[in-house]
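Write out this protein's structure.
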Amino acid sequence: MKPKVLVARAVFPEVVERLRQFFEVDDNPQDLAWSQADLIQRLQGKVGAFTTGSVRIDVALLTANPQLRVVCNMAVGYNNFDVPACTARGVLCTNTPDVLTETTADFGFVLMMAAARRITEGEHYLRRGDWKKWSYNQLTGSDIHGATLGILGMGRIGQGIAKRGAHGFGMKVIYHNRSRLTDDKEAECRAAYVSKKELLQQADHLVLVLPYSAESHHAIGAAELAQMKPTATLTNIARGGIVDDAALAHALATRQISAAGIDVFEGEPSVHPGLLKLSNVVLTPHIASATIATRLAMANLAADNLIAALTGGVPPSPINPEVLAR
């Protein structure tokens, strides 16, 4: 008899069919938003779960499903997993790093440029029929080429953004991270390490690419926004909760900073109503990795992890590999 697994959200049909070769699969092709109680019930008797970032694996779920052995996230982030609780119960957690690095770095750079050059605002201006003549100061934004690019969080995606800025746009790149890059990596990215305070004060365009955790919650709040240049932009492609969205809405409304590009939100899919009222923010619905090729690669890597974990193989991207050592 095949092991039973749950695919908690709708994914590519060909990936589900691939999983059916190895498992008895209970899937969610209608992409219903199950409550936590529904999810707990659906997982009864399942030894594995294919999840996305909206699917929460917590203590209550683990307690109700002691047979669960592996949870595989179709995402690089995993703040939806209580990893210590999983580890304590011998449940392997996996994610999908690397396969979305370049696509997400592309999108982060595009979002930053759209905010700086007022692309969304300009399109709305045109569509409303407000464009009647050329004016010297009409929708003037800020330059990217030659500006100072600040990056908070310098993992794979942060490094990708740094390279795009330094090599493609002649930007001065500065960064802050929990740990400094090696000299070789800094040279490759043409990036200089600075304190967080210096990063906030010097960046013309600040991009956030750090993982979400209790320590990074509201890493950018009112105090941090107050340290930024009034001409600066802020771009968040990391996770909701890293930015205090209420504080950001206030900073944008009062022109404490110039503009923002935001792809992730606190409590998403809900968006702070203050942000929705503003013209100087570009808002996108968590789509930084949204290309067909990238999302398919993410789904297949999550499937690779699930298959390997439950068929005696070695999962390619474990989050808590100490579980494997047991």
